[in-house]
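Worked Example 4.2. Consider the chain below.
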Amino acid sequence: MPRIHIVTDSGARFSNPRLVRHFPVTILPNTIDIAGARYLEGVDIDVDQAFELISSHGKPPIVEPPSENDYAEQYARLSHFCDAIISVHPSRELSSSWSNGRLAAQQVSSSCEIAVVDSQSLCAGQGMLIRVAARAAHEQETAEEVIQTVRQAVNRIYSVYCVRNVDFLRANGFMKPSHAVLSTQLGIKPFISLEDGNLIVIEKVRTRGEIIERLVEFLVEFTELEDAVVLQDQKHITEETRVMQDRLALEFPGQHFPFTMYSATMASYLGTEATGVAVLENEVDEFDYDF
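Applying the procedure from the previous section yields the following structure tokens:
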């Protein structure tokens, strides 16, 4: 088996945190600036503490990804005992992390191959791609096969969120101010989709029941799920998530739908009042058709 190490940043979230303890994964922390105070995500501050501070400040924090030098130092260190490094980054449309990793890889003089991958996602979607990389590194024979598997999986990851407070969407430019004001006045909650690495408003709902219904409908569109996770804004399971899990148990017998808080990095875009789901669709063999 090739000796492969995975690198990512702290914006990634995992339905099973034990993943990073059982596989060679290094997580470099993002720096989160909340009202002038700077924290290393996951080091100086955990996710629920970050949510509390972000919520009390009321404005989007500034998220700084690991720098080019941070990545270069990590790649150089790992290159001494790895055949390949797979560096998984949030969408280049939303973060400079991928660009920093790409420039850093060019600095490293080594026979170790460094694949810098744009996940075209954030948060749990990014974490799912890391899980794909870890599994492929354990199962496949060459580094080239592992890297190809990871790159192909990018297009099988989907995420949607329902945002109950539109202030951060407006501040970040994802909603026009007039649309945000109207949504607030009418009690309308936007649905946000991650498409081609961008956050896009795709529709709007009003009630909690409609939120649950729309998230379930989104998941039911997939006939085969390799991985799925519910994202919420609290540490402990919410009633919304519990109802969703009950509904999904009927739609997908035997399929597990774990939950976790979305990352503080994701909260910098959406705010601290959202519910979502992330999905990794099963790979379909192009020759596997019913005739």
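The chain has a mean pLDDT of 91. The chain has two domains: 4-155, 157-281. Compare this with Example 4.1 before moving on.
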